[in-house]
């Protein structure tokens, strides 16, 4: 099976590679932004026509949420136009497409976990461009999967956990937002779920559609940071003391508004895979252990 990954240098892209590189029967085509710009119709057309993969997983995205507010054109090109181009050519060539989206398609007004069919309403440019990307994929390619996820962390690239580790090592105290609730997600666990679901859907096309994946258990950024501190201290990744303080969103103004509550209900995906995601603290511990091993390495 020939699998093409776009956005291969990102958190999810690297995790997908780690898993698929060693999987038997897989020929992996790894495309970072330089090799394939998903917003170029001609580049996508010629790449897909030349390689004819059996599956395309789109891990490319514009993920700088605050920057997107003042860089709308690029965010739209990468998060909406690009997925639309991929969907159009995948449909033309009969290539199943797995696309990744976000909890930011919701406005956070729910009080119970968001299900796939819940109405979307975005609060930010990032959220809006990702929502339009989803809509184009759905419209243009019936053989597609859309997997929404949230609060992604990995030892690769930039993310909340790595920012916290750096700041906790530099500072004696830290203020972290405590009134936004969501679910942290390991890029590795997301990659496993995306691969498993993509394989299943190829054999059972009734599975194509939209899914939610995040690790189990909801938390706030503040409580997430506290767990990072506890686990990282235990593993020797943080050597000094750092006191953490919970603050309100209003005390930490950002260019983009975030949903106050973006917990995703993962039942549909768990049913399809007959497996539930593991709790986020376990996934965090795995990531921190891998990070420590790579630093010791
Ligand atoms: N990170 C999160 O917390 C989070 C939360 C919810 C959903 N998601 C979604 O999960 C997916 C994976 O996110 P991630 O955290 O792995 O993102 P990431 O680490 O930011 O990686 C995205 C990758 O896409 C590449 N890219 C940007 N523009 C491109 C283009 N025009 N053509 C090809 N590649 C391009 C980037 O390349 P450069 O490095 O060269 O820019 C980067 O390597 C995305 O769909 C994202 O929206 C992420």
Strand content: 15-25%
CATH topology: Rossmann fold
Q: Oligomeric form of this entry?
A: single chain
Order of helices and strands: EHEHEHEHEEHEEEHEEHEHH
Overall structural domain count: 1
Distinct helical segment count = 9
What is the level-2 CATH architecture name? 3-Layer(aba) Sandwich
> Given the C-alpha coordinates, what overall shape results?
globular
Describe this structure in words.
The chain is an alpha/beta fold and 297 residues long. It has a single domain, classed as 3-Layer(aba) Sandwich (Rossmann fold), CATH 3.40.50. The chain is built from nine helices and twelve strands. The chain has a six-stranded parallel β-sheet, sandwiched between helices. It is globular, with a radius of gyration of 19 Å. The mean pLDDT is 97. NADP nicotinamide-adenine-dinucleotide phosphate is lined by residues 6-7, 9-13, 33, 37-39, 59-63, 78, 82, 100, 102-103, 130, 149-152, 157. NADP nicotinamide-adenine-dinucleotide phosphate (NAP) binds next to helix 1, helix 3 and strand 4.
List the helices and strands and how they pair.
Elements (H helix, E strand, L loop, with lengths): L1 E5 L4 H10 L6 E5 L9 H11 L3 E4 L13 H22 L3 E6 L22 H16 L3 E6 L2 E2 L6 H11 L2 E5 L3 E2 L2 E2 H17 L5 E4 L6 E2 H14 L8 E5 L19 H7 L6 H17 L1
Parallel strand pairs: 1-2, 1-3, 3-4, 4-5, 5-10, 6-9, 7-12
Antiparallel strand pairs: 8-11
The structure holds NADP nicotinamide-adenine-dinucleotide phosphate (NAP).
